[in-house]
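queue> pop job 88
queue> type: inverse folding (structure -> sequence)
queue> payload:
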């Protein structure tokens, strides 16, 4: 198995130069490299993992032209991102001609089928690997009088909705409460979000940037706060539940498939300020129950997520690669 988008060291300077001159030229170079690699190696099966549900149509097009079998794994499908009409036919072929089209949530599969007006006979839901221990929840943090929530993810408000959370925290009732929210992650909205927090005069938030040790975050935080506008299935939500912490998030993507509102966490009905404030308020009034809710969540998520998602996914890929189905046309 090899990474088909890997650029040899001898070509990295040329590729970097193309990136500086023209993003289009750089993409064309990468596509040519992929075409050449696949044409020479003729793999039994190509696995295309794409961020959105139509990001990989150019890669799949190369596979189809070379009559190579391929699997699609879509990490996200969003109500706010539709494939444009001039890509629609290619996107239908991208999914329809795949040996399998896998998604990280039922919501993402259903939305993709609706957006493309196609029923995918070889669709399935798969789970992503996580960065916390599956064996047992983490001990509940000590009480120093301050409730600490973590907002973990790319600082990209168009999708992750951190601006919604900042507006909620700017309301007088939240300013007065013993609550602190720590933001972890980087992204193209980092400067804007930090400036927004300063503009709103928020003293109960801290931006920490990127951190490698995700499990360490949960040692000192009581829960997750995730105001996303779109998701696949948030990996950080799965991790939060596995370690035994409460989660406050929005009913987008597959979140409601793993989190039961008011029982294993708290769901905002929509990614809006009013709905998220309501979810946070419901959670706040039940702070004395948080450790119990978190233990329930830790049990529930283990019924939905395997201990080793990577191994299960690899078995599915190997099984599919071993079948005798012919190449795509």
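queue> result:
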């Amino acid at each position: 198995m090899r990474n088909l988008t890997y650029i040899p060291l001898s070509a990295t300077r040329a590729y970097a130069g193309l990136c500086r001159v023209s993003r289009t030229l750089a993409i064309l170079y990468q596509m040519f490299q992929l075409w050449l690699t696949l044409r020479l190696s003729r793999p039994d099966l190509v696995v295309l993992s794409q961020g959105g549900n139509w990001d990989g149509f150019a890669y799949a097009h190369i596979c189809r032209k070379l009559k190579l079998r391929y699997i699609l794994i879509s990490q996200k499908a969003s109500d706010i991102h539709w494939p444009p009409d001039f890509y629609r036919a290619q996107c239908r072929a991208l999914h329809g001609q795949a040996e399998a089209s896998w998604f990280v949530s039922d919501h993402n599969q259903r939305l993709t089928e609706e957006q493309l007006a196609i029923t995918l006979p070889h669709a399935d839901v798969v789970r992503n690997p996580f960065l916390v221990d599956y064996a047992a929840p983490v001990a509940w943090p000590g009480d120093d009088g301050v409730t600490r929530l973590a907002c973990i993810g790319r600082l990209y408000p168009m999708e992750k909705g951190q601006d919604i959370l900042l507006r909620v925290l700017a309301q007088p009732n939240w300013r007065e409460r013993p609550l602190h929210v720590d933001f972890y992650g980087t992204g193209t909205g980092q400067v804007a979000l930090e400036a927004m927090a300063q503009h709103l005069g928020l003293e109960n938030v801290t931006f920490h940037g990127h951190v490698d040790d995700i499990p360490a975050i949960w040692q000192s935080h009581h829960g997750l706060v995730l105001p996303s506008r779109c998701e696949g299935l948030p990996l950080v939500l799965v991790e939060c539940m596995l370690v035994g912490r409460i989660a406050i998030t929005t009913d987008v993507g597959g979140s409601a498939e793993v989190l039961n509102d008011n029982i294993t966490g708290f769901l905002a009905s929509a990614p809006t300020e009013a709905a998220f404030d309501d979810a946070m308020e419901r959670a706040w009034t039940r702070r004395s129950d948080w450790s119990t809710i978190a233990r329930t969540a830790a049990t529930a998520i283990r019924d939905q997520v395997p201990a080793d998602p990577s191994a299960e996914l690899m078995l599915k890929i190997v099984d599919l690669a071993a079948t005798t189905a012919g190449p795509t046309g």
